[in-house]
Amino acid sequence: MRFDDLPTPCYVVDESLLERNLKILGGIMERTGAKIILAQKAFSMYTTYPLIGKYLSGTAASGLYEARLGHEEMGKENHVFAPAYRDDQMDEIVELCDHVIFNSFSQVEKYRDKVLAAGKKIGLRINPECSTQVGHDIYNPCAIGSRFGVTIGQFRPELMEGVSGFHFHTLCQQDSDDLATTLDAIEEKFGPWLSELEWINFGGGHHITREDYNIPLLEQCIKRMQEKYGLEVYLEPGEAVALNAGFLITTVLDTMQNGMDIAIVDASASCHMPDVLEMPYRPPLLGSGEPGEKTHTYRLGGPTCLSGDNIGDYSFDQPLKPGDRLVFGDMAIYSMVKNTTFNGMPLPALVYQDKNGDCEVIHAFGYEDFKMRLA
């Protein structure tokens, strides 16, 4: 099947674009000796895990189910972090994961013996209280009142027994200059303990495969921790792995007018691209322009009952009409992992496009996928 023949709505992940990102990440690993693992919370299309596993060192999980997925489908290093763990899941998590990262010393005390008895590594998430983001506090782990990580004020050196590494995650779609600033704060606050550890995990949020990302500075940051403290360095990007490697294809269902031209499409911002509303942001749309840039400007909206289910305003050279196909870019990340069936919306099919341009529908969803989540 070719791209133009695919049913809509559907997510398409392009093998060539995905591998482009992986080669960039693999090059960093080769030059620095750091290990990069896939943060599955951003991208979990496990059909691609054999390809990802050729380049990266493993997976990062946010709980039991992601830990199982990484273990079963990639089978390499498997790290897990959660703000708190459930007693009834801990035995399986310890069995599946190589690194178990805790969010507090109370969790370390509770599960330390279990993790060490299994021969696994214990990590502690620290909070350097260094906010490098502007706006979007929903994505700022260093905001006041954040539930993520141990601050220096809550640090308990006497409870560090068995802890072999630090983990921090403070970035969101940011460049390496913010990472360097964060490392300054970590050294200032937690420096005395760094040389006593085996490893450090820089977390995610690094936009490494973005065209203008400063890779040389990232590599300097990695080497800084290696050479100064003798630490093994991990990074766990999610977006960077599949950035700009996927698309969401949708079809225009109808057009209308209410103070401006409106087009209803068969994809929903609320259901199928939730970060459009949560971040919020305006996703790229192939062949379109900014509002007013081209002759015909439309507000694109989804088919749900939510009044705010709007994808954004775009302009086109020609008027839109029912049956027109629109292709949104950068739709591999935080899309299929966060989508919903609100309003009974069908989930988009999952499609893999190989290097020859041939497309395979990996999974198509139907009514039963909606019904099975209810009772």
Automatic annotation (TrEMBL):
MF GO annotations: lyase activity
Signal sequence interval, chain numbering: none
Chain ranges of the Orn/DAP/Arg decarboxylase 2 C-terminal domain: 10-331
Name this polypeptide is given: Carboxynorspermidine decarboxylase
Organism of origin: Paenibacillus brevis
Domain of life: Bacteria
Cofactor: pyridoxal 5'-phosphate
One family name in Pfam for this protein: Orn_DAP_Arg_deC
Entry coiled-coil feature ranges: none
EC number: 4.1.1.96
High-level lineage: Bacteria, Bacillati, Bacillota, Bacilli, Bacillales
